Amino acid sequence: MPENTIQPIFIMPEDTKRTTGRDAQHNNIAAAKAVANTVRTTLGPKGMDKMIVDSIGDVIITNDGVTILEEMEIEHPAAKMIVEVAKTQEDIVGDGTTTAVVLAGELLKKAEDLLDQNIHPTVLARGYRLADSEAQKILNRAAKSVTVNDESILKNIAVTAMTGKGAEKNKNKLAELIVVSVKRVFDGKKIDLEDIKVQTIVGESADTSELIEGIVLDKEKVHPSMPEKVENAVIALLDSSLEIKNTEIDAKIQITDPSQLNSFLEQEERTLRQMVEKITSTGANVLFCQKGIDDIAQHFLAKSGVLAVRRVKKSDMEKLARATGAKVVSSWKELSVEDLGSAGLVREEKISDEEMIFVENCKNPKAVTLMVRGGTEHVVEEIKRAVTDALGDLAAALKYGFVVSGAGAVEMEVAKGLKRYAAGLQGREQLAVQAFAEAMEVIPKTLAENAGLDPINVLTQLRAAHDNGNDDAGINVFTGEIMNAWENGVIEPLKVKTLALSSAAEVAEMILRIDDVILGGQKKTPSGMPLGGPPGMGGM
What we know:
540 residues, single chain, 16 helices, alpha+beta, three-stranded antiparallel beta sheet
């Protein structure tokens, strides 16, 4: 062997795949753009829906960005980072997922053009950070304050969130219900959306949806002799069982005489009667139990005219407590009059072949139920997603206290401000800030495209309107004309925009800084066989 021959050194397994440099960056950007393009056509009032069929044949029809991305089971690591943006947006504010993903995709698309001009990724990342910081300032300057008393603004926020989704036909009726429900549970500082239960009912029109001043449970009374309706209900909440407990240690009871057996059974019955008498002595005529209720206890409760429900979920017990004012008690022995709550009416009703318990007409409830109805299961689920988005928007608006104009208006204002900011910069970061500004225009551009309008004409008109000082100029996708978004009631929470922008910018920066993708090989056993077994063996 010649002395000048250099042996290759392998530091990773042979089947490891590695992509480096420009190839790695282009592959990651292509994956991110593919994800953004998937949900891009769903944006706005004229957005289209996606039908997703999973491996077992279940069908979901939706234009909700995060639902689409979660159901798609994306595998590419860079694409997964874009999906995380949508999930974060959904978890924190409940809406704006499509906006965040489309922005991230467009930021990477603009960055790709600059990479091809040999601008270093770290320069792009720094420019994007500068642009994000300036964009946040522009957004805050464009924001207007909102309080819980601004009902018309709150309703417009809810209507904006539902426009273009399954609930659009009945958006005004649903918006009124949503505003009332949010005002019920808002404590002046924050709002917990767990206090608003969205219950779906299949088989009726969406315009029959209603707000229940209390809680609806997918349960039934435990004994047929119990009353189906209790007016002026006095409610007890118990998180222990009304049953005879088994001993925690092994015990052996030896019975030598039949009378002893009868005595033993009678003692159990007396104990159960004592439990029921303790509950009824407090004046309770409705009982919700988190655990089981013995058959004999059910009989005694029915004889006493008590409506009882068992195995209620812990989350529903907490909602019942906030709605009725009752306290959840851990032992029947500790139950007192002070622990009881009240409701104007507790009733059992059969809806779509299912028994349901309605706890309604509560006084000043801090937990309520939105009864959302729809003609089919797919329709009602999509309406529920739209209602959930609207609830998230209202919660974000009231929690942070600021809103901005929608219809692409605020994005155009940010783009205008960033272009002015870029002009004052020196160095290559200026190009990155300029690219960021152009990326912001993807939102009104996409709204126009999804409405079948000419995006170039629309962007030209929007730029002219904003340059003339019309900060609230947005696109009316129904007429194709430029409108004042604020005056036309197209309003969105500031937090939705600021979070979508910062999340998109951060994930774009992270993807841009990746120049080496190493795909690890299969782990092997000591014998050299892949951990899952040889191909065709089914693995472990």
